Amino acid sequence: MDAVHRLYLALVVLAVALAAGATAWTRGHSSQRRDRIARPFVVQAGKCAPGSTIRLGRPGVAFAGVVRRRLAAYREPGGRVLGRFDRLNVNRVPTVFAIRAAVVDRNCRASWYRVQLPIRPNGVVGYVRGPAVEVGRVRTRIEVDVSRRRLTYFRGGRVVLRTPVAVGAPATPTPIGRFYINQRLTTTDRSGPYGPAALGISAFSNVFTGWAQGGPIAIHGTNAPQSIGHAVSDGCIRIRNRLLEQLFPVTLAGTPVTVHP
What's the rounded Cα separation, in Å, for the pair 96 and 87? Predict the structure, then answer.
């Protein structure tokens, strides 16, 4: 572990979201606490053109929204409903969206957010009402290079960790695209096939559509460390347990995850 990572681990203490019930890759504990995702966001001061769209995010900074109460996501503001989401998801952890843009009123308040949703098809975007989510900045980012079987972890645009991983086998590939960490789960068996914890990604398997919860993808530990560096998984991204234990406490819900071919 380099000095930057040691310093970051020493300075940052975040809440751990604990799941209840089974998922496709982990079984969580019965207790649950909400993840903290940074300070509230204000679009800007001054006057805005009502209905104008402001893109959010820049290199090193992304935005995430935690659902305050049950809400609907729309294809466009006030349009067809794409889905409805509770404050807690099926695993009893907070529902989180990646925010891409804000639709503002004349006072520059966000009346709507354009968000990436953790549903099929992968990468689908919709709109949620501004007051229904709590918004925060996220300065962590993950990139996965499937062909090189490598994960790179960034903090504020700086590389903190780079490590080999296992990725999907040719028949069960890891989905490619732009996603985000939508849930953080611990396991009941640290020595099991998923290791001590899993960082759930807003992506779903393109093959296992009949799996529990639709075949979600995650970055998780493993009891087969010999698989690291190979294309052998069912689509998830396996990382050595000791490194997952370092990443898990400091990886916020809402962290962007880009998977390259």
Answer: 9
pLDDT score, position 46: 66
Which residues are catalytically annotated? 220, 236
Residue 151, both tokens: 């994960």
- The answer to whether 182 touches 118, Cβ cutoff 8 Å, is yes
Q: Is the pTM of this model over 0.70?
A: yes
Per mean pLDDT, which range of 42-56, 61-75, 98-112 is the poorest? 42-56
If one counts every other C-beta atom within 10 angstroms of the C-beta of residue 85, the result is: 22
pLDDT (average), residues 193-212: 91
- Residue recorded with tokens 């409805």: 84
Cα–Cα distance for residue pair 244/202, rounded to 1 Å: 18
Element (H, E) at 245: helix 241-247
Domains of the chain: 3-32+140-260 (2.40.440.10), 53-138 (2.30.30.40)
Contact 68, 61 (CB under 8 A): no
Number of C-beta neighbours around residue 108 at 10 A: 18
Question: Which one-letter amino acid corresponds to residue 95?
Answer: T
Average of per-residue pLDDT across 172-201: 96
Confidence of residue 59 (pLDDT cuts 50, 70, 90): confident
Q: From CA 195, how far away is CA 67, in angstroms rounded?
A: 28
